[in-house]
């Protein structure tokens, strides 16, 4: 029972670098989500995907990109890292109107 | 639009004390309501849920009742343990929606 797997768990980037945060789920959930969690800001939705082949912007999509080419995978790309993107990133998945299953998070520092 | 408001923390209790964390919501229609828990260094975990008015969700000794008349979904536990120390999030999923709205979270500290 892997659930939602995020890699890497920790990452340090230099300003301007790009990278991809990986997210995979093995529960055949139709919907997947990316959130960032910052102190005092709660959880903010970056992007979501209601089903394979579709993606939509959340509250804070600038500087990020996503794709959903398979049901299982939902990678998040940072196009040109900035210090403001230092955060903890969580991927989640759900089936229909059910609750979310979250991954364990990626702690990203941009210097 | 839909929104969730939960009590600010931190909440500090002694072991075996009674816990209440208040949560109220604003939504049209009949949303589903959830409580999630986040332990230090981990992702959020679904604790319990209720999908219609008067439903009671329960898990691990925690309970919450969906009260449409007061638009509330308060989390309760009769006797907390040190291991319950965590951040608790109230959340709402609107009818037919995909995006869950989370409250700001309430940090709970339980002292031995």
Notes on the protein architecture:
- The complex is a heterodimer of chains A (111) and B (112).
- With 111 residues, chain A is an all-beta fold.
- Chain A contains no helices and eleven strands.
- Chain A has strands at 4-7, 10-13, 19-25, 31-38, 42-49, 56-57, 64-66, 76-78, 87-94, 101-102, 106-110.
- In chain A, strands 2, 4, 5, 6, 9, 10 and 11 form a seven-stranded mixed beta sheet that branches.
- Chain A is globular.
- Chain B has 112 residues and is mainly β.
- Helices cover 0% and strands 51% of the residues of chain B.
- Chain B has no helices and twelve strands.
- Chain B has strands at residues 3-6, 11-14, 19-21, 23-26, 32-38, 44-50, 56-59, 62-65, 75-77, 86-93, 100-102, 106-111.
- In chain B, the strands form three sheets. In chain B, strands 2, 5, 6, 10, 11 and 12 form a six-stranded mixed beta sheet that branches.
- Chain B is globular.
- The termini of chain B are far apart.
- At the A-B interface, strand 5, strand 9 and strand 10 of A face strand 5 and strand 6 of B.
Question: Which tags fit this structure?
Answer:
heterodimer; A: 111 residues; mainly beta; seven-stranded mixed beta sheet; four-stranded antiparallel beta sheet; 0% helix; 49% strand; B: 112 residues; six-stranded mixed beta sheet
Compact summary:
The complex is a heterodimer of chains A (111) and B (112). Chain A is 0% helix and 49% strand.
Mean pLDDT of chain A: 95
Shape category of chain B? globular
Main sheet record of chain A: 7 strands, mixed
Order of helices and strands of chain B: EEEEEEEEEEEE
Distance between the termini of chain B: 41 Å
Class derived from helix and strand content of chain A:
mainly beta
Number of strands of chain A: 11
């Amino acid at each position: 029972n892997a659930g939602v797997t995020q890699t890497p768990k920790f990452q340090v980037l230099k300003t301007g670098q790009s990278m991809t945060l990986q997210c995979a789920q093995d529960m055949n959930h139709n919907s997947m989500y990316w959130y960032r969690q910052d102190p005092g800001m709660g959880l903010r939705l970056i992007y979501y995907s209601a089903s394979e082949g579709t993606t939509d912007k959340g509250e804070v999509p600038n500087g990020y990109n996503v794709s959903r080419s398979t049901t299982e995978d939902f990678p998040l790309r940072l196009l040109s890292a900035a210090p403001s993107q230092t955060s903890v990133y969580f991927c989640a998945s759900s089936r229909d109107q059910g609750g979310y299953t979250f991954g364990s998070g990626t702690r990203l520092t941009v210097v | 639009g839909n929104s969730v408001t939960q009590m600010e923390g931190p909440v500090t209790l002694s072991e075996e004390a009674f816990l209440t964390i208040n949560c109220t919501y604003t939504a049209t229609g009949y949303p589903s309501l959830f409580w999630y828990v986040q332990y230090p260094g981990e992702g959020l975990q679904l604790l319990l849920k209720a999908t219609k008015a008067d439903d009671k969700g329960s898990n691990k000794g925690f309970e919450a009742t969906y009260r449409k008349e007061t638009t509330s979904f308060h989390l309760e536990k009769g006797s907390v343990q040190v291991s319950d120390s965590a951040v608790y999030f109230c959340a709402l999923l609107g009818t037919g929606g995909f995006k869950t709205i989370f409250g700001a979270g309430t940090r709970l500290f339980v002292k031995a």
